[in-house]
Each structure stands twice: as C-alpha cells, then as structure tokens.
Design brief:
CATH class of the largest domain: Alpha Beta
Strand content: 15-25%
Distance between the termini: 48 Å
Bound molecules: zinc ion
Number of strands: 17
CATH superfamily of the largest domain: Metal-dependent hydrolases
Structural class: alpha/beta
Mean pLDDT: 96
Amino acid sequence: MRTLIKNIDILTMDENNTQYKKGCILIEDDRIAFVGHETELKKVAEKGTKYDRVEDGKGKLALPGFVNTHTHIAMTLFRGYANDLPLMEWLSRKIWPMEDKLVEEDIYWLSLLAIAEMIRGGVTTFADMYMFMEETALAVQHSGVRGVLARGLQGPDANSQKRLEENKRLWENWHGRADGRIQVMVGPHAIYTCDPSYLVKAMELAGELGVGIHIHLSETRQEVDNCIKELGKTPVRHLYELGLLDGHVLAAHCVHLSSDDMDILKEKDVKVAHCPSSNLKLGSGIAPVQDMIDKGITVSLGTDGAASNNNLSIMKEMALAALISKGVREEPTLIPATSALEMATVNGAKALGLDGDIGSLSPGNKADIILLDVNGPHYYPQAHWESHLVYSGYTSDVYSVWVNGKKLMEDRKLFTVDLDKVYSEVNKIYKRILGE
Ligand SMILES: [Zn+2]
C-alpha cells in the first residue's frame, strides 16, 4: 500500500529540525518512505510514481504523532471525581478505594475512552502503568495506537508476588504484538509504595525480560522528605544505590531534585516524563525542566491520568511546559516552542526506547503522522508553525491521524473506536462504581 500526501507543510522534528513548505510524504505500508519536495520524490522513487492513494494536504500541517510518556489511561473513570486534594490524601481517601471496585472488563472500555481522546488530540503513542493491563493491551490492539504498557506494582503485601507475575504474563502475551505496536515495561509504582526488597524484585524482572522500568519519582516534597528521614538519602539516590537506574528507566515527574539527583539522572541516562498539569493540580510543585535540559537529561511529556489533569492533551502539556518555566524563573528565554515540541515528539520516542522508529517524520520511521487543520484564525498569519502549535493550537485542530501506516481518524471521525458504544459502557461502569 502506497499513499502519497502532497501539497502539505511539514515539521519533520528530525535532528536538523527540517521543515518543508508544500512538501509531500510517501507512506509505504507501515513506514515512511519519503519526506520532502515532490520534485525530489520523482528523482528517487524506485518503485515509480504509482500510488494506491493520493491525498491533498492543502491547509494542513503534518508532524509526527505526539508521545504521551506517562499516564494511567483507565483513570478516565475518575475524571472530575476528586479535585483539590494533595497527592497522598487524593490517592488514599478517594482513588484507591474506588479502584478496588474496578473489574477486568472495565479497564478495556475505560482504556478505549482514553485512547479515543488521545487519538483526537494527536497522541499516537502512550506509556501506561495500571492494573488489568491485558485489557489495555486489547484496547491498543483494537484501536490501532501504539502503547508501552506496565503493570503497576506495589509491595510487599498479600498480592505483590501476583502483580509481578501479571507483569511477566503481560510481557509473554503482548510484548511485540499487535503488529509491533505494543511494548511492555515493568512498573514499580514509586519508592513510597514499594519497599527496597520489592524494588529489587521489579528490577530483576525487568532484567530477566530485557525491558525498561516505568516508575514515579520525586513527585512531591513529602516523598523526598520522608525518604531522607527514613533512609538518609533522596529517592533518586535510593534507586541509584539499589542499582535500579542501571537499565532503561522512565521516571515520571522528577519535580523535587537536588543537583546531585540531576547528576545521577544524567549519568544513568534516566528519561524523565514531565507532567506539568498533574503537578500543578495536585499542588506537587514545578519540575526544574530547564535545569534538566541544560544537564543533557532527556525530558519528555506526560499527562498523567485524567483524574489529576483532567484531560489527556499533550498539546496542553507543551504549552504549560513552555510557559511555566518562563514565569516561575522570570526568564522568557527558557523552553522555546521548539524545545516543547521536541519534548512532545522526539524526546518522547527516546524516553520509550522507540527512537529510530517514531518521534520524527524521517524515511524509514514508522508512519505515525498527524495532520492539523491550520485554516483557523488562530493559525494566521500562516508562518511560525512551532510557535502557533505550542502557544496557539488546540487538540481540536487535529484533522487526521495515522499510526503504523493506518489511518485512525479523518476529519475528526474515528475509524477504529465506536464512541457511542464506549460512552454507553463507560456510563454503566460509572453508575456501578460511583453510584450515580
Ligand atoms: Zn502517575
């Protein structure tokens, strides 16, 4: 299958930040075969200029699909349920008791609801940590997106061994499946929900499976203060000394970091998922993003779950990431629009170990492409695309979405998710669990 999208402006987000005016993109099966000007395409087209489908991209802007590197997608059920509480109170009083009522099949429908929202917001890949993850894997398979999935692990307690086994089974059943769209990580929740011996077990499982670790890290001041009080060291140093940072690690939040912590994150090449909305809403603080970038740490963007955001918009996270640092540090030069876009695309790919496959519109990469309708007044004058996207864009501008060379949405209509059916199932779950 060969599809040519022509007459389109393109932000490739490749290492040279190459951009094209009225360029074209050739998709061959699941990969990008060419990005550039049509005159060049004709010169290099080995298989001729016959296409199964040609699309006119006039009035659209193409860029790589956004990567959401930290979320708990099934928490869409709790969107708006508990607001204005600090993290520990929010978790222990509101979220955890309700989560106990969730059954396996709920997770499928709640995941599909989140995936539909993400596709409509231009997110083509997400990294998730939760429970009943095989249901989320099924939702990824059916919906056509790309997912990096981890079983959330807490322990030790009566079920902690079972959770490790579930993470392993998730890997056995789903790693590399759905045309390669599903990857599996190991998901120890955090240092305050996993004791050192359990963290080591999670680390050993990741080593055995040859996969990365997805963990919450230094999210609140309380987490850091308690760790120092109990263990005499910061959470980052605690994980470092356990050896947990020796493999591929995706660390969500990293709000409260010492200079020594940042040196460790750089030394161990830990990838950070910056989640500004969630950090603001839970009053957790503001991550030192520019300092991390200056150190050479890979910083990507996550929404966290819809219960603490309350949506799954990476475009919103881009705007916040750029704006907060400038305001808090009283320095407008921090996090320019290009950096925010890198965080949402190429850095997201690196954070998940998927660079070389996704994150930029480059020949050979998977065809994970989004087209934005840039005819709205908020995109005029039609120049300065990076600035428009970060400071002026809305998720509702996303016009079409491709993942793995397959079109999942056009003109905002979803092809793989039956929204009416999802809404009806989610309503039933809501009534059963939250009793309204
Ligand atoms: Zn989280």
